[in-house]
Amino acid sequence: TQLLEQSPQFLSIQEGENLTVYCNSSSVFSSLQWYRQEPGEGPVLLVTVVTGGEVKKLKRLTFQFGDARKDSSLHITAAQPGDTGLYLCAGERPLQGAQKLVFGQGTRLTINP
Amino acid sequence: ETGVTQTPRHLVMGMTNKKSLKCEQHLGHNAMYWYKQSAKKPLELMFVYNFKEQTENNSVPSRFSPECPNSSHLFLHLHTLQPEDSALYLCASSQEGVPYNEQFFGPGTRLTVL
Fold it and tell me: If contacts are CB pairs under 8 Å, which of residues 61-80 in chain B contact chain A?
């Protein structure tokens, strides 16, 4: 059973289009992080959302944390080829006094010129 | 550059070989992690070290043996691996004790077991 479900798993669109990626769970998280991973590299943190309903913007990327802190979305406006990559959401949960990240399976995004 | 380096970047080994993966972080963090990333599975947490003490072993087979000699270095010793162990192995670090476990990843070691 997947703790964090990301959808879609694959998305290929044309440059200039808008898109939304979803990250859903039945569990509550203390924070939700979004990472982007490019081929041959490790994931790089984009943003952390903490408060239910929180919205954060990073240029053309808009991240939202659900009111119940169980889900999140990533919206990209006017996608560019440079946005191509694997987008991972990760929920933070307590583990033996420390915090543990649980990752979704990722959304592989391709932006075609 | 994320401040986390991994060597080697690529490794091909036979099932009877013994090899080690190395990770070094230059961020002054106190927690380090090993993850396994396979093609059709989400990132799987393998081991966590906090202040050099192992705090998590996520049911990893004993053919994987971690070592953390200090808070900046982390090793993953490999022996008698199986072909299904072929994957990208990622090291990460973070600062425990501050809000939000934001992790910094290395570029990974692409491991192929023949």
Answer: none
